[in-house]
Specification:
three-stranded antiparallel beta sheet; mainly alpha; homodimer; about 190 residues; about 70% helix; elongated; DNA-binding
DNA sequence: AATTTCATGTAACCAGTTACATGATTCA
DNA sequence: TGAATCATGTAACTGGTTACATGAAATT
């Protein structure tokens, strides 16, 4: 038996949503179609196989609601090992690679950190995110300085777009850290 | 024979780079590893199949340099239909879906617009990009207003991160439009 | 009566990842 | 001599996309 884990950002999104409340595949699709989580796939060809993989891995458990109909509604809940796996995923340190290639997954992780891990881990996440982002901005600025004269106007502009994104990320992290520190209570 | 086109952002990146100057697969890998284009795959398992697909589609042509060695260096050049396909790709209007899901491809397109299409198309691209981005920001702001009271602190913060990214994109587009309009000459 | 929504799923295909393989050339 | 670099490629696997299929229940 191959050991599978939370194997994609879609799976992470599913796990997080289910941790809030039990949901069927169809419920999940509706969330992905109608809310700001629309960047994740809403296609049944992605969601149902993902649910099956997670269930095979023992991270979620589906219970059939309307038993004797042809297409019974199957509502999924996190198992205890699923909750562990999710918490472990959210606790992972933020790497430079995450910051460069997996911002979407990072934001997804942060979305679920409040309820599942609490204030301390939120701050840890944000500080690591800020640190790695600022470090990468310095790398990009150096590259920009070195290449600004040989790049065309358009390449330079695209490059600057990249830097602007990371700067915006850093400002966001600073703002949220401040907000957390100001208000003692988070809800 | 199935008609293939520029079938991924990696292929678009390859086409654009080759339009500047002829390159081998290994040259491309070096660019993807060592420059700010590192967000694209540098793995040989992605690059070489992509080159083959593009060659099969008649968009690029490989010429062997060191003929009688065992691993001859193969240098690729755009064909005339490849140049057409690239220009057509870059000329495509900017859709809302592009803005939401394919920012990376959009920035890649802009990178190559200068040399291949000129100032008029640059402005067209930027204005469409700005328009679609601002429209989507309004959608997100409405959602934010509607959900701000039911969302947890972390979901709300992640949501705001999303909005911040699009605002930063809009500011960038405005700045570049201004820069273009100020200087008569682009180089 | 007709259309939409609820609800779950499969099958073919596609591009990227990971890991491996080959062997020449250059450099320490 | 041994390591790193040049240079191209394949094979198995993975997860997502597109398109299709089924049929009950609710709505118009």
């Amino acid at each position: 038996m191959t050991i599978r884990n939370i194997d994609s950002t879609l799976s992470l999104a599913i796990m997080g949503l289910i941790s809030y409340q039990s949901m069927s595949g169809y419920d999940l699709r509706k969330v992905f179609i109608s809310t700001a989580m629309r960047q994740f796939s809403a296609s049944p060809g992605a969601i149902y196989p993902a649910l099956r993989r997670l269930e095979e891995a023992g991270l979620i458990k589906g219970e059939i609601e309307k038993k004797n109909t042809l297409r019974p509604r199957k509502v999924y809940t996190l198992t205890s090992s699923g909750l562990d796996a999710l918490k472990e995923n959210l606790s992972q340190p933020v790497s430079q690679d995450d910051v460069i290639w997996r911002t979407d997954a990072l934001m997804l992780r942060f979305t679920f950190i409040c309820e599942l891990l609490g204030k301390e881990k939120m701050l840890k996440f944000l500080e690591e995110f800020l640190g790695e982002t600022e470090a990468y901005i310095k790398v990009l600025e150096k590259e920009h300085e070195a290449l600004r004269k040989v790049m065309s106007f358009c390449s330079r502009s695209s490059f600057e777009h990249g830097i602007a994104v990371y700067r915006s990320n850093a400002r966001w992290a600073k703002r949220i850290i401040e907000e957390i520190q100001k208000q003692g209570e988070i809800k």
